[in-house]
Every structure is written in structure tokens, then in C-alpha cells.
Amino acid sequence: CMELKSFIIPEDISLCFIGVQAFAYCYKFESFTIPKDIDIIGERAFYQCKELHNFTYYGIKEPQMFESPF
């Protein structure tokens, strides 16, 4: 994960949450795109993703976020 720069969850994949520390310590992570079905982002899901500047979410309502997802 330390070399991962971007991640897109395709619309045809059915997911409802991003787990706790799912992408933590992906230091080079720059962009992340998630489909509208995600409604929960777990604690520290993007912890230490210091280069994450482009976060795209296609949902209608903002997902529920626990503690500090970033």
C-alpha cells in the first residue's frame, strides 16, 4: 500500500463501508474515488495519507465518518 497513488471502487462493486485503517499509511496516495453506495468511512481509514488531495464521492448524502478518518 505504501506505493499506491490512486484507487477507484467501480460502480458495479457493491460495498457499503470502508473499514478501519483500510488505507492507512498509504503515504503516496493522491486520489480516491468511491461509488454512491458507501455510507460509512471507518476510523483512520486514510490515516497518514498526506498526499491525498483528490477525494471524489458520488453519493447523495455525506457518508458517516467515525472519529478521524484522515
Question: Could you give a quick summary of the protein structure above?
Answer:
The chain has 70 residues and is mainly beta.
Secondary structure: elements and pairs:
Elements: E1 6-8, E2 17-18, E3 31-34, E4 40-41, E5 54-57, E6 64-65
Parallel strand pairs: 1-3, 2-4, 3-5, 4-6
Give a written overview of the molecule.
- With 70 residues, the protein is mainly β.
- It contains no helices and six strands.
- The strands form two sheets. The chain has a three-stranded parallel beta sheet, with no helix packed on it. A three-stranded parallel beta sheet has the order 2-4-6, with no helix packed on it.
- The model has no long low-confidence stretch (mean pLDDT 86).
Order of helices and strands: EEEEEE
How many β-strand runs?
Answer: 6
Poorly predicted runs are: none
Choose one word for the global shape: globular
In the sheet with the most strands, the strands line up as: 1-3-5
Proportion of helical residues: under 10%
Q: What's the N-to-C terminus distance?
A: 16 Å
Average pLDDT works out at: 86
Question: What structural class is derived from the secondary structure elements?
Answer: mainly beta
Radius of gyration, in Å, reads 11 Å
Main β-sheet description: 3 strands, parallel
**Beta-strand percentage?**
15-25%
Number of helices: 0
